[in-house]
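Project outcomes to date are best conveyed with an example. Our students and postdoctoral researchers have been running inverse folding experiments weekly, and each run begins with a structure described purely in C-alpha cells. The record below, which covers 124 residues, was selected by the lab manager from last quarter's runs and is presented without edits.
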C-alpha cells in the first residue's frame, strides 16, 4: 500500500494548467520545465503528449496542503521514490556514524573521568 508521500499528486499551487508537470517535479525532483518540454516533444513526435497529460491530470489526486514539513523532507521523499534501497543504505550509514561518534564521546568522557571509569568497572 502506498503511503501519501509515495503517491503522484497534481500540484495546483505551482501549476500552469492542471498541475501535472509540477506534480511530476515534486515526485521525481526533475524541474517542471523539463516535464513541460517532454510533453511538448512527445506531442509533436507521437501526438500522445496531450492525451497523456490530461489522463494524468484526471487520474492523479490533488496534492495535500501539508504533505511535507519542509524542503528537506520533500527532498528526502524524492530520494526514497527514486531509489528506496540507496536511501535505506544512506540512513544505515548515518546511524552507524552517529553510533561511532557517540562511542567516541563516551570513551572520551569515561577516560577523562577516573571516578566514572572505576564505577563502570565495578558494575561489570
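After processing, the design step wrote out the following sequence:
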Amino acid at each position: 500500500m502506498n503511503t501519501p508521500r509515495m503517491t503522484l499528486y497534481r500540484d495546483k499551487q505551482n501549476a500552469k494548467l492542471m498541475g501535472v508537470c509540477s506534480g511530476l517535479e515534486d515526485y521525481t525532483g526533475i524541474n517542471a520545465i523539463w516535464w513541460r518540454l517532454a510533453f511538448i516533444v512527445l506531442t509533436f513526435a507521437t501526438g500522445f503528449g496531450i492525451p497523456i497529460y490530461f489522463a494524468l491530470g484526471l487520474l492523479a489526486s490533488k496534492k495535500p496542503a501539508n504533505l511535507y514539513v519542509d524542503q528537506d523532507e520533500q527532498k528526502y521523499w524524492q530520494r526514497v521514490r527514486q531509489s528506496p534501497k540507496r536511501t535505506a543504505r544512506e540512513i544505515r550509514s548515518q546511524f552507524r556514524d552517529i553510533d561511532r561518534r557517540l562511542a567516541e564521546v563516551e570513551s572520551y568522557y569515561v577516560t577523562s573521568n577516573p571516578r566514572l571509569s572505576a564505577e563502570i568497572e565495578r558494575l561489570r
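The helical segments are 20-28, 32-46, 49-59, 71-82, 84-111, 114-123. The first helix runs from residue 20 to 28. The training component of this project remains on track.
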